[in-house]
Amino acid sequence: MTETTALTAELERWIIDQVRAGQPPEAVLEPLLASGWEEQVAIDAIERVTRNFLEAHARETGLPLPSRVPAPIGLNGSSAVDAGDREVHVLASMRHPRVIVFGNVLSHEECDRMIELARSRLSRSATVDLETGGDIVHEGRTSQGMSFERGGNALCRRIEARIARLLDWPVDHGEGLQVLRYGPGAEYKPHYDYFDPDRPGAAKILQRGGQRVASLVMYLNTPRSGGATTFPEVGFEAAAVKGNAVFFSYDRPHPMTLSLHGGAPVTEGEKWVATKWLREHTHG
Ligand SMILES: O=C(O)CCC(=O)C(=O)O
Ligand SMILES: [Fe+2]
């Protein structure tokens, strides 16, 4: 028994080969279980080998090291997730980039109320200026927006608690909700949500909560036409449907995450979203 369940150099190489070939975790785990490994011991061994390999690879290639990210569901699991006060549906899921489309995240009443609370406080959307760490108006972003303080009102608190449960990521690791309104023709050109660590203003932003590691874009209405959230590098788009949300994570601030995404132009009607960004650490 001890012989079959030892983590030999040969077994380590085999695990790494599987990971490099893009095998799903189950395909790596199964043969270990079949040869007598206890499940948790095998999972820990695979995780350790994979992490060591990725870290060594990152160091050699000068890539940023991967961070832990919210991982709300596995692949081919249940189509429903218990988010505490609500059952959220899993509608679609992609491994790389890691994208999950959720249904039933917000009730229609919550969507309407969110819009109502945000409407009078909108201004032309700004983006974080990585030169200075302040805010700037960006031409690729023709929406209007506003941000709530985290926990700033009862509705935000309720939604934030639900998101924390859904994503298994602490409330205090999240930024306040940001609401955007796109009128006809408005869009948000493809961009990354993480902060480019090489830009001069980044250090100041990263001091408070570390990197962004995931985003949850919740649709507060259904535009009559257009307004999908697109991932142009992989030709994927999530339709904007009231109450649904698209989640995506990026384990390092690097294009290799394929997390480039945008809000496609609204071709008819308007589009409202609320975005939650998740940080590595406490965003105090
Ligand atoms: O409006 C969308 O679909 C995307 C919004 C977005 O990318 C963001 O808020 O960072
Ligand atoms: Fe974004």
What's a quick, concise take on this entry?
About 25% of the residues lie in helices and about 25% in strands. It has 6 helices and 17 strands. Helix 1 (about 10-20) packs across helix 3 and helix 2 crosses helix 3 (about 40-60).
Question: Strand arrangement, largest sheet?
Answer: 1-2-3-14-10-17-8-7-4
Number of strands: 17
- The low-confidence parts are none
User: Helical element count?
Assistant: 6
Question: Termini, distance in Å?
Answer: 49 Å
Taken from the alpha-carbon principal axes, the silhouette is globular
Pfam families: 2OG-FeII_Oxy_3
Domain Fe2OG dioxygenase: 173-280
Cofactor: L-ascorbate
Keywords: Dioxygenase, Iron, Metal-binding, Oxidoreductase, Vitamin C
Provide an overview of this structure.
This protein is of the alpha+beta class and 284 residues long. It is 27% helix and 26% strand. A nine-stranded antiparallel beta sheet has the order 1-2-3-14-10-17-8-7-4, covered by helices on one side. The mean pLDDT is 93. Keywords: Dioxygenase, Iron, Metal-binding, Oxidoreductase, Vitamin C. This is 2OG-Fe(II) oxygenase. Pfam families: 2OG-FeII_Oxy_3. Its cofactor is L-ascorbate.
Characteristics:
single chain, 284 residues, alpha+beta, 9-stranded antiparallel beta sheet, 4-stranded antiparallel beta sheet, 6 helices, 27% helix, globular, binds 2-oxoglutaric acid, binds fe (ii) ion
